[in-house]
Amino acid sequence: MHRTEQSRAHIGITDAEIVQMLAAYRLFGFWRIDIDTGHFFASEDVHAIFDLPYSGGPINLTELMSRIHEEDRSLIAETFEQASLRGVGFHFVYRVDNRLGGYKMVRTVGQFRDDKSGGGIVGVTYEFVEKLRVVGFEDSTIPR
Amino acid sequence: MSYMTTSERQSLLSAELASARTRSLFAPALGRVSAAFGLSHVTLMHVPSPEDLLLKPLLIESSLPVAYIKEFDRRHMMRGCPFAARLRESAVPQVWHLGDPVHRQAFPAELHDLLLRHALPTGIAMPINANDGQRLVFWFCGERAALGQSEINELAMLNLHALDTYNSVKRNEGGTHNALSARELEVVRWTAQGKTSIEIGQILTLSDHTVNAYMTNAIKKLDCVNRTQLVAKAIRLKLIN
Questions:
Q1: Residue A89 DSSP SS3
Q2: pTM to 2 decimals?
Q3: Which fold has domain A15-127?
Q4: What CATH class is the domain B182-236?
Q5: For B208-233, what is each residue's pLDDT tens digit?
Q6: Where are the domains positioned within chain A?
Q7: Which of B191, B196, B232 is the closest to A77 by Cβ?
Q8: Is B233 on the interface with A (CB under 8 A)?
């Protein structure tokens, strides 16, 4: 899980820019599970990936799990069990109902956190939409 | 004299088997044991009785090709299986390699051909008794040279770990579903839906202390250590949906 941190001082790129670009042009959400309460808090994009109505409160996990392909559901639940039990990081790629009669590929990466900001599992979840030779520009591009 | 061969491989695979606490983790863990010995397929099955004619109904976990199983059953090859009777009567592993003329002779021609067509000339079948008294067999097969005695010893030890895991998986599957009371299940279900203890108390007209007590009981009963693990386990076991 923990890769050696890459040097970037000499490049002049900020953490915020990296996060912004990772999340750009696709659904890319952030989440946290509170270990003590078992509640799952997530950003708008996580709700969008699972086609759930957004709320700032805890997500309905049963509803979220019902969107995941039946064959993947058990392994994902098992992964969360192990992560909460052993405090380990994880990642998995799985199938989520695309509401069009098929499934889309989604990746989740999580890691255990136990510090001043609270105990829990934090992570990111994003859709696999990569295709070869795709170009996209921001809508607000200013001509130079 | 040491009966079992100890090795890093054995301890790694044993640990992996021990941590496979669900059926979905058990099968891949068995597969890694098989691969570690250069064998491509592994099957856990009931030992056939003299009345059994088909392989498929006996399988518990198997990575055997579907085409192999279908042809085996279509042509009733169980009748010619040279090991069925020995697996019932003896605890000694049955080992074969079709390159060995003596072993080859024991197999009917059509079974011999089927094994070769699926690249399964080498195999080992290890009978063992499960906790509930059922006689099972771990059967590893694939294409490699004949297994050596130290490898057979190592596999025998790994089979004991695999059996422990299988017994534990079966216990978990059978035991937990009825372990939670209706109230405990209800509290877990609302928690999974994102409700706090106070909110659940309002829904069920209980005090939040009572809700917490139900949660604590459910955590203990499902052998969990926190609510996150409890919710995840309840979802995995399909106690809530």
A1: coil
A2: 0.54
A3: Beta-Lactamase (3.30.450)
A4: mainly alpha
A5: 999 999 999 999 888 888 999 999 99
A6: 15-127
A7: B232
A8: yes
